[in-house]
Amino acid sequence: MSTAMHDTIASSGRASDSRVLRPGELDLTHKVILYLEDISVSFDGFKALNNLSLTIDAGELRAIIGPNGAGKTTMMDVITGKTRPDTGKAFFGQTLDLTRMSEPEIAHAGIGRKFQKPTIFENHSVFENLELAMKTDKRVWKSLFAQLTGDERDRVSDTLKRIRLQAEADRPAGLLSHGQKQWLEIGMLLMQEPRLLLLDEPVAGMTDEETERTAELFVSLAGQHSLVVVEHDMSFVEALGGQVTVLHEGSVLAEGSLAKVQNDPRVIEVYLGR
Ligand SMILES: Nc1ncnc2c1ncn2[C@@H]1O[C@H](COP(=O)(O)OP(=O)(O)O)[C@@H](O)[C@H]1O
Ligand SMILES: [Mg+2]
Questions:
Q1: Cα dist. 235→33, 114, 203, 213, 215 in Å?
Q2: Å from CA of 46 to ligand 1 middle
Q3: Residue 1 gets which letter from DSSP?
Q4: Which atom of ligand 1 lies closest to the CA of 68?
Q5: Among residues 90, 94, 85, which one has the least CA distance to residue 29?
Q6: How far apart are CA 105 and CA 17, in angstroms?
Q7: In the chain, at which end, N or C, are there fewer CB atoms within 10 A of the end residue's CB?
Q8: CB 47 within 8 A of CB 39
Q9: How far, CA to CA in Å, does 267 sit from each of 67, 161, 246, 247, 254?
């Protein structure tokens, strides 16, 4: 890693220390982990988010559906600090105002995001990828050669089991299937012990079996973690089994069980009208 890049990471880490609670200290009074109220985001006058309000409970597994352009990814951009809302409130737990935090501060506070394109280290083994993700010290080479403690080794093993890559632990990550790479990336997120996981179209390109395994993984993570999953695949959303929020034109159109929202005439019209 270049010195400049390392300096950036180091300084952002320092900035977060004074303002952000440790993840374990997240204030979950009222059981709410994420609170969005009247969020609006405009791009050149076009409202990508339009008075969006949404509440996610601690431990919840929430699916977000909606046609292309509904604002799903923009919503995740707001939660992670990538995009600043023009108006509205965004809180992580009771006290952390996401609109006032930087992207690294938000990540450090316990919000992990999985992007569609995996950002794994292809030339390193699956095990090493998880090891690197665990290290708060982002100096890659130093981390790799430092001895793991027993606890750290156990954490990597637990995660390998969880993402079903035990048999692949010593293989270069670049040799994994598409679905396995996605799981590895999820495992890397888990190594950072996020309280809230944001996953944007996680099963795109996966086989049916990989998709089923991914639903099982997410169901197993709920409770200990909170998950917000954007997905188009309705059989996957059904397998998640949680509450579903339908976004349309930057607002919440409907919310409830999948069966309930699928029978909502407004939802049917939005999907059929396209
Ligand atoms: N950076 C951007 N600049 C301009 N328009 C954008 C930008 N990001 C998103 N949009 C627009 O905002 C709308 C919502 O996009 P997005 O959040 O990606 O929707 P979804 O993820 O639901 O498909 C779309 O019309 C998209 O073209
Ligand atoms: Mg999107």
A1: 26, 21, 11, 12, 10
A2: 9
A3: -
A4: 23
A5: 94
A6: 8
A7: C
A8: no
A9: 10, 38, 8, 9, 7
Answer whether 250 contacts ligand 1 (Cβ < 6 A): no
Starting at the earlier edge strand, list the strands of the sheet with 32-43: 46-57, 32-43, 87-92, 96-97
Read off the tokens for 63: 């699916």
> Could you give the C-alpha distances from 173 to 134, 137, 199, in angstroms and in order?
16, 21, 20
Q: How far apart are CA 225 and CA 238, in angstroms?
A: 19
Q: Is 245 touching ligand 1 by the criterion CB < 6 Å?
A: no
How many angstroms separate the CA atoms of 39 and 265, rounded?
25
> Measured between alpha carbons, how far is 254 from 47 in angstroms, rounded to an integer?
19
Ligand 1 pocket residue status of 68, Cβ below 6 Å:
yes
Q: Is 49 in the pocket of ligand 1 (CB under 6 A)?
A: no
Q: Is the pTM of this model over 0.85?
A: yes
pLDDT digits (tens, 9 = 90+) for 1-54: 444 433 333 334 334 444 455 545 788 888 999 999 999 999 999 999 999 999
Note the pLDDT tens digit of each residue in 71-92: 999 999 999 999 999 999 999 9
Q: Could you say which residues of the chain have pLDDT below 70?
A: 1-24, 135-146, 273-274
Nearest to 212 by CA among 242, 238, 186: 238
198: CA distance to ligand 1 center in Å? Answer: 17
